[in-house]
Amino acid sequence: MKARRDRCVLGALYVVCVLSGCAEQGTRPTASLNVADSADQVMYGMWTNVSDEGLRRSQITADTAFVYQAAQKMDLRKLRITMFDEQGKQSAVLTAKQGMYTITTGSLDARGNVVVQSTDGRRLTTEHLIYDKSLMQLRSDTSFVYVSTTDRLTGKQFTSDLDFKNVTIQKPRGEQRGAGVLIPGQEKP
């Protein structure tokens, strides 16, 4: 859209200059218009494996991928990421409507109906999920629901390790199945 507007403005300026006789005066531009919002490459039916030290860590597939080489980012649409553990076994699957994958850091910003389903039955749903590889951390700035075989957590936002064992939640709500945990001050006399 911006590129079309820029071309229209440049075209209109050229016509005005030609009609007024200024085309013969001054210097002509030597640089071409570089549109910042255009992808360097567009892939349909994209898939790739991400490995670390020879071990496959994840497989990324997307309906469409827009690659921005200068920024080292990929804008993925209708994405699915299959994650693997240290032994190469599938550990979880993430699906989302869209995700921005940073190639240099391996981080992902997933948006739109984000669902992470682990092979051990845990499930996380949210509208926005950020995977920060450098911190080995998951976080969300929107409401979420996390369900496991023993817990159900909800809240406004969270920060967690990858196993969802150390979790910080804003406005938490939750329940635990089974024996539960006694909160200080609620012990029986």
Count of alpha and pi helical runs: 1
Shape designation:
globular
Report the mean per-residue pLDDT as an integer.
78
Report the radius of gyration as a whole number of Å.
25 Å
- Can you tell me the CATH superfamily? Lipopolysaccharide (LPS) transport protein A like domain
Q: What's the CATH class, please?
A: Mainly Beta
User: Ends: how far apart?
Assistant: 70 Å
Which structural class do you get from the secondary structure elements? mainly beta
Beta-strand fraction estimate: over 45%
Number of domains: 1
Key words describing this protein structure:
mainly beta; disordered N terminus; 1 helix; 189 residues; 12-stranded antiparallel sheet; lipopolysaccharide transport protein A fold
Structure description:
The chain is mostly beta strands and 189 residues long. The protein has a single domain (38-176), classed as Sandwich (lipopolysaccharide transport protein A fold). The chain is 10% helix and 52% strand. It has one helix spanning 2-20, and strands at residues 41-52, 55-68, 73-84, 90-102, 107-118, 123-132, 137-140, 144-147, 151-155, 157-161, 167-170, 173-176. Strands 1, 2, 3, 4, 5, 6, 7, 8, 9, 10, 11 and 12 form a 12-stranded antiparallel beta sheet that branches. A hairpin with a 5-residue loop joins β10 (157-161) and β11.
